[in-house]
Every structure is written in structure tokens, then in C-alpha cells.
Amino acid sequence: xxxxxxxASISVTDAEIAKIVLMPGDPLRAKHVAERYLENPVCxxxxxxxxxxxxxxxxxxxxxxxxxxGVPSMGIYATELYTQFGVESIIRIGSAGGLCEQVKLxxxxxxxxxxxxxxxxxxxxxxxxxTPVANYEMLADAVEAAKTLGVPAQVGSVFTSDHxxxxxxxxxxxxxxxxxxxxxxxxxxxxxxxxxFHKRALSLLTISDHLFTGEALSAEDRQESFHEMMEVALETxxxxxx
Length: 242
Hints:
By secondary structure, the protein is an alpha/beta fold. 32% of the residues lie in helices and 26% in strands. A five-stranded mixed beta barrel has the order 5-8-7-6-9, surrounded by five helices.
């Protein structure tokens, strides 16, 4: 949907934005995804170098755009995409640090819900805890896509942290002990925003390192693992694309 933005964050040029948008944190990864996986990708946004592209996947229109780091950055871009550009669905495609023993390197995490230390949700003024959760239909589609593709995937809750370097050494242990699968920095924000605007959202994460075993993927392994996550994301997106 082509439309001008009233903000300084997104300015559509030369392409439309699809009804469904895949969103990695890194805008250069958005460029990589567009060039590798989409047919005839066209760049629609370069504002603040937060690159966005629209192309087709198996004949249906899909967009990909970076969202930056942290809940506030995700909040800006998801809100504008949902409210100003006619986007109905967003799939976050990112990396995460493993917490639980059953989580292994290269696993894909399908985030059912997100616990968080972010205060972002307080702005919605709900008289209780406004729980950030995924859209169930999209989550079910991702689970089925992972099974079909033979991609190792786990469904569960993650920890969205405002701190990349948390001052407390115990926070990750507490998250692990509560059964949270992985830690990252944006999922709760995306789920809150989607709920507030009655839109759809899902977060898919690749385990790139493990916080307790010290294991980490090499650059080559990360590329291959992200390829697995991207196939799941694209197959899921295709069902919701036009």
C-alpha cells in the first residue's frame, strides 16, 4: 500500500509496502533477505538507513524492513507500519541467546509469549499486566512450516530485555529457572503494539549463542541457521500475503 508517512521514520519511494512485513533488527540483513529470497525486490525506504524492500515470494507480495535494536525502536516502526501503511501482519526474524538446557544452537524459537523488564507496556494503562503474546493462527502456520521443512523449532516463552548488558548477574538464571527459552530485545514490544492495534504479529528467533554453555555460532553457521529461519518465515508469510 503506497502512502506518505507523517513522520521522519519511513518515506515510501518507488515501491509499495506489502500487507505482511518481515523485520530483522539489522537493516543490512533486511537488504540481504530481500536480495536472496524475494523476486524483483525494490527498495522503498532509506530514511535513517533503516532499509525496507518489497518483492514477491511465490507470486505473493512480501516486504522486509529493519526495526533497529530494543523495544522503543521496534515500537516506532511497527506502529507506523500498522497505522500509516496498511500493514496487517509483522514477523520479527532475529537472533537470540539460549537460556534453557533443551535449547540448542541453530534451533528456531517460535515465541508464543514474551516476559519482559520493559516498561513500554505501561503506556497502554491497562489495570493489570498487559501480556504480550503472538497471533495464534500465524504461530500455528509457523509450527506447520517448520515441520514440513524439517527445521528444528521449539515453541515457548522468551525474555525480552531492555538490557544487552544487564547489571545483575542473576537475571538470566532467573529467566532460565522460570522456563523461558531465550533472551532477546524486541518481541514483547511487537506483541503489545499488534494487540493494541488489532493486528497480527509473530516472532521467530534463531539461537546464535547460549548464555550458559558459552557456545556460539560462527559467521558461516549463522548464515546457514538464518536460512532455516527465513524459510519458515517466508512460508508463514506466504499464507498471509496477497
